[in-house]
C-alpha cells in the first residue's frame, strides 16, 4: 500500500543520493602525505619494509595495514532487500549504505563489492580470491538457497569472520526482540504458535535461532511464495524440508488462525488486516520485509490495538533490522581477531541486545528520535540504532564470547581499556549535532541571515541550504554579497534583500508601518520606524514578525547588546516573560551541558534566577533532553554569602512552585557534575544522585566567563547563545562566530521554529 509518505520519501531518497559527492562513503588517507619524505614512506621505497615484514610473518598484516579494520560487504544482487533479484549494479546503493552504517556505528571501514556472478561455486572462488584484503566478510542480499552453501563454504575455507548478515544479523536482532516481546505479552517461547512467512535466507536462519532459544518445531508453520510448507509438497529444497509440517493447512490465511507470533521475511503487503484479526490475544507481529513490511504499521496497530508490532523500518517504533547487529558484531570479532563468528558469539549478542532494551534510555537516544519517554515496553522492545551503548554492550559481549569459545586470536586483557577504546571510536559530539540537523531537515524553515556580506555567514547559509536544514534569505548589500560569492566561488542561489536599497523601499515601508503600529504608544514615530527599518536587525526581526520568514539570525558583526535591542523592540519577549536570557549548549564527551544565563542579565534577583531556570528547563526539554538543573554558587547547601543566599532563595521558590522540577542548589559546579560526589555527599538532593546537565549561574559574569573558559580549554563545540523567552525565533550569534557555529545556531533556529508551529 503506497502512501503519500512513501512518495515523499522516494523523492527525498533520490535527492539524497544524487546530491554532492556521489556515493555514501569515501576513502580518506590516514597518514601524513604532505612532503616528499612522507611519500617515500607511504609508497616506494619505504613501503617495501612492511611488505617484507609481512612476508616473513603474515600476522604482521594486522600491524602494518588496514586489514584488521576493513570489512567487505559483498553481494551478487539476487535478493536485495525485499526487491528480489535486481542484479549487482542495482544493489550498490544498499551495499554502500551498509558501508556507511558500519562506519558511523562501529568505525569499521568497508569496501562494497558487487559481483556479477550467480553460480555459487564461481562466487565462492571470487570471494576467496579477494579475501586477503579484509579482516572480515559480510555477505549481503544473496538469495536462498545459494546463500546457505556460499556462506557455509566460505566459513569453512577462510580464517576470517564471514557472516551472511541477512541470515544471522537478522536472526540475532529479531530473537532479542522476540524474547522481549514474549516477556511483555507474558507468553512462553516453548508454548507459542509461530507463522514464519518466507522460507529464504533470513527466515530459515531466524527460525533456527528461535528453536535454539526454545521454540518448538511442532509449533512453527512456515510459508513460502507457494503457501504453507507441508509434507505433501514435493518441491522443497534441503533447507525448507526440516520445516515441512504434516498439516491440512495450505495458505497463509489458514495458517494465521490462532497463531501468537507472525515473522515476516518475505515481501510487502502480504499480511491482511483480516489475517491479523484471526491471531490470538496480544499477537506479536514482526513484519520485517524491506523497504515495506508485510503489513503497514498503522494498519496493524489500527486493526489490533493489542499487537506488539515491529518492522524493519526506522520511521516506526521497534525497528527490527540487522543494522542493530552487524556493526557491533563485526567490531567485537575484529577486535579479538576472531577466526569466525560462532553460535556462542551470536547468542551473546542476542542476550546483550535483549537486556539493553530493559535499561533506562539515555537522553541522547530519546533526542535522536524526538521521543520524550523511551522505556522498555510494547513500543520499545529493542534498542535504537543511535544508542551509544550498543558499541560497548554488544561488541564487548561478542568479543568475550569469542575468547571464551576459543576463536579469538588476540584476546583482550583489560576490559576497561577496551571499553574506553570503543567509546573513543565514536565522536559523540558530532553525532549529537548530526541528530539535531537531521531533525531540522525533517521540516526545514525559512531563516533570514543578517550580515550577508560576511564570508562566514555566506558559507554557513550555503551549508544550511545544501544540507536541507533551512531556506536562507540574505540581508546585505547585493553587490558586496555577490563579490564574496564570486571571489570564493560559493554557489548560493537564494533571495538577497538590501533594506537600504531603493528597490526595498516598499518592503521597508510595509514593515515600518507594522512596527509603528506596534510601538506608536511607546514613543516611536512613523518617521523613526521607517529609519529603523533600514537597519538589518530591525528589518530581519520584522520579517519574522510579519510572517515572511520563520527565524532570524544576526549578531556576527555587532555587539550582542546592539543586536538584542532591535529584537526586543520588534519581536519582544513571549507573553508572561519578563526577562529573556541566553543559553549555551556545550558538547562534551559525557553529553551536552547547558549554561544559562550567559548573555543578558547582569545580576538577576532570586525571583529572576528562578524564572531563568524555569525557562531553561522548558527550552532544554524542547531540544529533547531531560533537564537536571544545578543552581550554582561557590557554596554547597550552606549559604553564607549574599550570592549563595540569593541562589538558595531561587531554589526554594522553584521547589515550591514546581515540585516536579529536577533542580537543586546552591551547589558548586564540580559537585554538580560529579555523580559520585552528589550521591555520596548530598543524597537528599533533588538531583537524585545524578550528574546535572544544566547549570544556572548566579550572575552574568560567572555564566559568560565559565563557558568561555570551558570553550578555550576543551576546544569543545558550542551551540548558542540560544535566545530564550522571545515571542518568535530570533537568535544572536557571538561576534566573529565560525561557520560551524553559525550552522549550529541556524539548526537550533529551525528547531525553534518547528516547535512553535506545533
Ligand atoms: N529487517 C531486517 O533486518 C531484514 C529483512 N529482510 C527482508 O526479508 C525478506 C527476505 O530476504 P531474504 O531472506 O534475504 O531473501 P530470499 O530471497 O533468500 O528469500 C525470500 C523468501 O521470501 C519468500 N516469498 C516471496 N514472496 C512470498 C509471499 N508472497 N509469501 C510468502 N513468502 C514469499 C520466498 O519464497 P520462495 O522460497 O518460494 O521463493 C523466499 O523464501 C526481504 O524482504 C528482506 O528485505 C532480510 C534481512 C534482514
Ligand atoms: C535489512 C536487510 O539487510 C535487508 O532487508 O535485506
Ligand atoms: Mg540485506
CATH architecture of the largest domain: 3-Layer(aba) Sandwich
CATH fold descriptor of the largest domain: Rossmann fold
The main sheet comes to:
6 strands, mixed
Number of domains: 4
End-to-end distance: 28 Å
Supply Rg: 30 Å
Number of helices: 30
What does this structure look like?
GO terms for molecular function: malate dehydrogenase (decarboxylating) (NADP+) activity. Residues 167-403 form the Malic enzyme NAD-binding domain. Its EC number is 1.1.1.40. In the C-terminal section; belongs to the phosphate acetyltransferase and butyryltransferase family. With 758 residues, this protein is an alpha/beta fold. It contains 30 helices and 21 strands. The chain is 46% helix and 13% strand. α6 runs parallel beside α7 and α23 runs parallel beside α24 (560-570). The longest helix is centred in the N-terminal third of the chain and has 21 residues, at 165-185. The model has no long low-confidence stretch (mean pLDDT 93). It binds NADPH dihydro-nicotinamide-adenine-dinucleotide phosphate (NDP), pyruvic acid and magnesium ion (MG). The site of pyruvic acid (PYR) has 8 residues, from α8. Residues 81, 141, 165-166, 290, 312, 321-322 line the site of pyruvic acid.
Amino acid at each position: 500500500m503506497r502512501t503519500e509518505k512513501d512518495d515523499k520519501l522516494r523523492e527525498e531518497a533520490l535527492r539524497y543520493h544524487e546530491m554532492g559527492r556521489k556515493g555514501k562513503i569515501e576513502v580518506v588517507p590516514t597518514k601524513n602525505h604532505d612532503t616528499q619524505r612522507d611519500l617515500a614512506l607511504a609508497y616506494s621505497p619505504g613501503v617495501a619494509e612492511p611488505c617484507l615484514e609481512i612476508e616473513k610473518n603474515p600476522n604482521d598484516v594486522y600491524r602494518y595495514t588496514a586489514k584488521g579494520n576493513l570489512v567487505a560487504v559483498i553481494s551478487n544482487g539476487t535478493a536485495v532487500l525485499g526487491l528480489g533479484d535486481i542484479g549487482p549494479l542495482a544493489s550498490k546503493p544498499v551495499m554502500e549504505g551498509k558501508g556507511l552504517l558500519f562506519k558511523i556505528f562501529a568505525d569499521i571501514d568497508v569496501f562494497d563489492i558487487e559481483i556479477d556472478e550467480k553460480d555459487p561455486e564461481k562466487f565462492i572462488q571470487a570471494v576467496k580470491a579477494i579475501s586477503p584484503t579484509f579482516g572480515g566478510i559480510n555477505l549481503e542480499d544473496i538469495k536462498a538457497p545459494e546463500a546457505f552453501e556460499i556462506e557455509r563454504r566460505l566459513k569453512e575455507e577462510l580464517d576470517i569472520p564471514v557472516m551472511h548478515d541477512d541470515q544471522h544479523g537478522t536472526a540475532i536482532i529479531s530473537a532479542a526482540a522476540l524474547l522481549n516481546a514474549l516477556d511483555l505479552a507474558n507468553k512462553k517461547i516453548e508454548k507459542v504458535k509461530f507463522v514464519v512467512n518466507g522460507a529464504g535466507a533470513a527466515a530459515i536462519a531466524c527460525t533456527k535461532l528461535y528453536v535454539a532459544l526454545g521454540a518448538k518445531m511442532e509449533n512453527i508453520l512456515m510459508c513460502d511464495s507457494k503457501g504453507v510448507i507441508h509434507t505433501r509438497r514435493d518441491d522443497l529444497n534441503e533447507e525448507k524440508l526440516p520445516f515441512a509440517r504434516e498439516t491440512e493447512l495450505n495458505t497463509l490465511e489458514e495458517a494465521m488462525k490462532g497463531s501468537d507470533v507472525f515473522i515476516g521475511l518475505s515481501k510487502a503487503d502480504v499480511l491482511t488486516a483480516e489475517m491479523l484479526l484471526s491471531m490470538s490475544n496480544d499477537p506479536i507481529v514482526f513484519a520485517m520485509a524491506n523497504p515495506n513490511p508485510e503489513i503497514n504499521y498503522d494498519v496493524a496497530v489500527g486493526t489490533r490495538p493489542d499487537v506488539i508490532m515491529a518492522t524493519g523500518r526506522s520511521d516506526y517504533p521497534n525497528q527490527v533490522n540487522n543494522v542493530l547487529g552487524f556493526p557491533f558484531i563485526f567490531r567485537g570479532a575484529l577486535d579479538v581477531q576472531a577466526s569466525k563468528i560462532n553460535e556462542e558469539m551470536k547468542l551473546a549478542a542476542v542476550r546483550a541486545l535483549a537486556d539493553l532494551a530493559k535499561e533506562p534510555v539515555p537522553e541522547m537516544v530519546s533526542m535522536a528520535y524526538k521521543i520524550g519517554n523511551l522505556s522498555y515496553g510494547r513500543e520499545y522492545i529493542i534498542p535504537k540504532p543511535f544508542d551509544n551503548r550498543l558499541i560497548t554492550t554488544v561488541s564487548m559481549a561478542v568479543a568475550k564470547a569469542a575468547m571464551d569459545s576459543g576463536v579469538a586470536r588476540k584476546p583482550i586483557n583489560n576490559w576497561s581499556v577496551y571499553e574506553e577504546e570503543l567509546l573513543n571510536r565514536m565522536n559523540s559530539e558530532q553525532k549529537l549535532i548530526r541528530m539535531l540537523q537531521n531533525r531540522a531537515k525533517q521540516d526545514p524553515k525559512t531563516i533570514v541571515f543578517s550580515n550577508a556580506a560576511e564570508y562566514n555567514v555566506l558559507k554557513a547559509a550555503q551549508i544550511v541550504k545544501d544540507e536541507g536544514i533551512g531556506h536562507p534569505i540574505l540581508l546585505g548589500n547585493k553587490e558586496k554579497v555577490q563579490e564574496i560569492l564570486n571571489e570564493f566561488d560559493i554557489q548560493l542561489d537564494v533571495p538577497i534583500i538590501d533594506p537600504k536599497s531603493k528597490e526595498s523601499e516598499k518592503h521597508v515601508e510595509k514593515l515600518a508601518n507594522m512596527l509603528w503600529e506596534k510601538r506608536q504608544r511607546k514613543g516611536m514615530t512613523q518617521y523613526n520606524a521607517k529609519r529603523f527599518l533600514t537597519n538589518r536587525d530591525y528589518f530581519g526581526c520584522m520579517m519574522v514578525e510579519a510572517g515572511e520568514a520563520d527565524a532570524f539570525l544576526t549578531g556576527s558583526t555587532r555587539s550582542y547588546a546592539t543586536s538584542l535591542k532591535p529584537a526586543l523592540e520588534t519581536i519582544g519577549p513571549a507573553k508572561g516573560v519578563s526577562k529573556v536570557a541566553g543559553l549555551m549548549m556545550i558538547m562534551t564527551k559525557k553529553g551536552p551541558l547547558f549554561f544559562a544565563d550567559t548573555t543578558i542579565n547582569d545580576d538577576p534577583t532570586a525571583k529572576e534566577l528562578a524564572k531563568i531556570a524555569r525557562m531553561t528547563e522548558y527550552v532544554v526539554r524542547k531540544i529533547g533532553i531531560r533537564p537536571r538543573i544545578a543552581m550554582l554558587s561557590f557554596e554547597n547547601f550552606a549559604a553564607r554569602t549574599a550570592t549563595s543566599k540569593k541562589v538558595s532563595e531561587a531554589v526554594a521558590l522553584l521547589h515550591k512552585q514546581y515540585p516536579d522540577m529536577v533542580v537543586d542548589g546552591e551547589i558548586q559546579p564540580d559537585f554538580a557534575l560529579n555523580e559520585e560526589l552528589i550521591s555520596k555527599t548530598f543524597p537528599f538532593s533533588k538531583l537524585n544522585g545524578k550528574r546535572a546537565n544544566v547549570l544556572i549561574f548566579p550572575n552574568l559574569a560567572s555564566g559568560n566567563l565559565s563557558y568561555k573558559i570551558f570553550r578555550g580549554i576543551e576546544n569543545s563545540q558550542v551551540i548558542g547563545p540560544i535566545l530564550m523567552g522571545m515571542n518568535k525565533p530570533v537568535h544572536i550569534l557571538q561576534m566573529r562566530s565560525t561557520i560551524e557555529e553559525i550552522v549550529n545556531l541556524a539548526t537550533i533556529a529551525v528547531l525553534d521554529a518547528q516547535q512553535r508551529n506545533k
